[in-house]
Specification:
It contains 4 helices and 11 strands, in the order ββαβαββββαβββαβ. Helix 1 runs parallel beside helix 4. It holds the Pfam family HTH_63.
């Protein structure tokens, strides 16, 4: 950063429809070391507190879905594989000029000699231990609709990386987001205010 330049405060940007509620989905790995479990528990507890204070409208804790559809067709809670879910996150990042790397990463996997389905390398999606997806859910949606991925519109994902220039980048973490929301309260997250253009997540700037 050039001398004298002040780094802007943490302010991930989302578009909020004032007629909609915001839900935070917390995606976690199913099997992690005890030290990492404590970190996940802390995130979940902070989300529960924000929910109880009506800073967020709802939250869910979800294990990352399987990487691929099994022969039985098993998928995650929303009917998506991990690849499909991350692809949706990537579309949000692309729309906003962001990147999900390095927290999320796609890695080519050479085909197995026993794999008769395809001779092309597959990709493996590496996901973080914990990530948050902020979705906009219509207030008049039913409970069944609320758990349907088609009833929600993603408005933010963390961790993500902002690259304002080729020389500069900044990665925003789950802790960054929670700390900002905890500080700013429900001024923005309840989605009750009319705004012009994108709004910083977690408070007015």
């Amino acid at each position: 950063m050039p001398a004298g330049e002040v780094e802007s405060p943490f302010a991930p940007v989302i578009d909020i429809d004032s007629a909609a509620s915001l839900r935070v989905d917390c995606y976690v790995r199913g099997s992690v070391p005890p030290a990492i479990t404590a970190t996940i528990d802390d995130v979940v507890e902070r989300l529960r507190d924000l929910d109880e204070r009506d800073v967020i409208d709802d939250h869910r804790v979800i294990h990352w879905p399987p990487e691929y559809r099994s022969t039985a067709g098993s998928t995650g809670e929303n009917g998506s594989t991990r690849d499909e879910l991350v692809a949706e996150f990537e579309r949000w990042a692309a729309r906003n000029g962001h990147s999900l790397e390095p927290a999320f990463r796609r890695q080519a996997v050479p085909p197995s000699p026993f794999d008769t389905d395809s001779d092309q390398p597959r990709e493996r999606v590496r996901v973080p231990v914990v990530a948050l997806a902020i979705s906009e859910v219509e207030e008049d949606a039913t409970i069944a609709d609320a758990v349907d991925a088609n009833a929600a519109s993603i408005r933010g994902v963390v961790p993500y990386t902002e690259r304002p220039s080729a020389e500069r980048s900044r990665t925003y973490t789950v802790n960054d987001l929670l700390a900002t929301v905890e500080t700013n309260g429900n001024d923005v997250l309840t989605g009750t205010h009319q705004r012009e253009g994108p709004t910083p997540l977690g408070g007015r700037q």
